[in-house]
Amino acid sequence: MSCSSYEALPLLRQFYTYGEHKSGFCGFFQDIKDFVSKSQEHVLRIAATLTMFDNPQALEVTLASIKTAIQLVNFYLSEHLFIRSSGGDSDEAILLDWLYKKYPDGLFERSLILRNGLKKFRKVPLLDAVLARLQESGYIKEASKGSFRLIPLNFNTHEERAAA
Which tens digits make up the pLDDT trace of 91-134? Predict the structure, then answer.
């Protein structure tokens, strides 16, 4: 089975490049770089499986299967981050994971975290510092004063996150 779609190959390259870029020193995926380095292989295996499930006679992986596989691997990357963060990882990873679970629509208010958030983040200096670092890294964006929007976890570049 091959993957030679003119749209799928650049998508795979972009996915791989993003993961490698964020796996470097101080990157968001630094603690799971072993898993990230295999992520493109996982995407290809999952895409091939999905393609064969849809059409057992298929000779080429479909673009739709590649896109679905990327979404699945992104989910597993975020779960892998959560598992590692449960063992004492960064405040940013812990808060970000909690925010994605608590606010599936992507919008949240700082004041609600201070009142009802994880106990660790109910202190203004700590919360503000973590929110600032998440904003600098492109994982959240201020929507209005005291209100923020989560940027979806995917493989877009930092510049594309900032524009979102």
Answer: 888 898 899 889 888 899 999 999 999 998 999 999 999 999 99
Domain 91-163 CATH assignment equals 1.10.10.10: yes
In SS3 terms, 10-33 reads as HHHHHHHHHHHHHCCCCCCCHHHH
Phi, psi at 99, each rounded to 5°:
-65, -45
Tokens coding 129: 């510092």
Residue 42: pLDDT over 70: yes
**Rounded percentage of the chain residues whose pLDDT exceeds 70:** 84
Q: Is 82 exposed, middle or buried (0-12, 13-18, 19+ CB in 10 A)?
A: middle
Instruction: Kindly report, as residue ranges, where domains of CATH 1.10.10.10 are found in the chain.
Output: 91-163
